[in-house]
Amino acid sequence: MPLTTTTTTTTTTTPSTPLTFYDIATRPPAEKNACSPNPWKTRFALNFKNLPYKTTWVPLPEVASVRKSLNVPACRQFADGSDFYTLPILHDPTTNTLLGDSFDIAAYLQTTYSTAGDGDLFPAQPLDYTFPLDPPPIVPLSECNANNPALAAYARLNVHVDAAFTAHTQLTVQGFPFDPATAATTKAEFVRRAQLAGAPMSSWDDFKCEGEYRQNMIRSFEKTLGAIAALFVQNPEGPFVRGVSACYADFLVGAWLRMFSVMLPEEEWALVKGWHGGVFGRLHDALEVYAEVK
Ligand SMILES: N[C@@H](CCC(=O)N[C@@H](CS)C(=O)NCC(=O)O)C(=O)O
């Protein structure tokens, strides 16, 4: 569902005016350190569609004010029910459309620019993968696209893949490539959020994930990724779910791999790339063709 749309125009051709894609600023250079999974889903989709666009990098403490200034409502809430303002946002001046959820954005790009670039982001396929959703996912999908039958398998996969990776993000927290200009504010904000959720945190150091606890989480991550790997080995040609051509399912997983590739210690990222016959290493490397940071 477009959160804000004043005109609806469907065109299958490439737009003449570049789109604006809002992503979270990290420590420069962005080409190396961009690591927010939901914005990565959008970057992959825009590059797959070969659309002209420009990234606006938003410092983390300014995400809320930028989103509010664009009149895009929040699509997430914090533990206390207050609005949690997020990115990506996409503005397409050609159709006067503003969207604030990565799945809405991908669905919009497919509808509006259906034949652009490498074609169909959402080819029909079953995409059977389940991660136990208990507690319920903390990164909700926009309700409209979650209920769109043509996209249902992808919407479901998005929720389950997000839950699987989110359950292991503690492995990455200490590796966050903070923009030095906003690091202190952002760390304090992360501690505040953890406290809102009832976690006994008083400082950034309390996010540490070390020793036996970390080893157990790494084992759990490997096991969890094993079930996702099953999607990719169905088609022995690889490296994508459907073999040689990518689709949005590859981007859903690949976006999280981007985050872990930046934020995990190097030796642990090397392990992830090698797990399950190297399926995630191959996927990550093959997605390089859609990973240009513009
Ligand atoms: N359902 C939304 C979730 C977006 C989301 O959670 N974005 C995160 C980055 S991956 C964010 O903007 N976080 C801002 C913050 O932590 O302050 C989507 O798919 O776009």
Q: Any overview of this molecule?
A:
This protein starts with a strand and ends in an 8-residue tail after the last helix. It has helices spanning 30-33, 37-48, 63-69, 102-112, 143-146, 152-166, 183-196, 211-233, 248-263, 266-286, and strands spanning 4-5, 19-24, 53-58, 76-77, 83-84, 89-92, 97-99. 37% of the residues are buried. It has ten helices and seven strands. The chain is α+β, with helices and mostly antiparallel strands and 294 residues long. 43% of the residues lie in helices and 9% in strands. Helix 6 runs parallel beside helix 9. Strand 6 and strand 7 (97-99) form a beta hairpin. The longest helix is centred in the C-terminal third of the chain and has 23 residues, at 211-233. The protein has one domain: Glutathione S-transferase Yfyf (Class Pi), Chain A, domain 2 (Up-down Bundle), CATH 1.20.1050. The strands form two sheets. The chain has a five-stranded mixed sheet. Residues 1-8 have low confidence and may be disordered. It binds glutathione. Glutathione (GSH) is lined by residues 24, 36-38, 60, 63, 75-76, 86-88, 101-103, 139. Glutathione binds next to helix 2 and helix 4.
CATH fold description: Glutathione S-transferase Yfyf (Class Pi), Chain A, domain 2
Number of helices: 10
Gross morphology is globular
Count every beta strand, where a strand is a DSSP E run of 2 or more residues.
Answer: 7
Q: How are helices and strands ordered from N to C?
A: EEHHEHEEEEHHHHHHH
Distinct small-molecule ligands in the complex: glutathione
Classify the beta-strand content into a percent band: 5-15%
Kindly report how far apart the N and C termini lie: 26 Å
CATH class: Mainly Alpha
Low-confidence stretches: 1-8
Structural class: alpha+beta
CATH architecture label: Up-down Bundle
Radius of gyration from the CA trace? 18 Å
Protein name: GST N-terminal domain-containing protein
Pfam family, one: GST_C_7
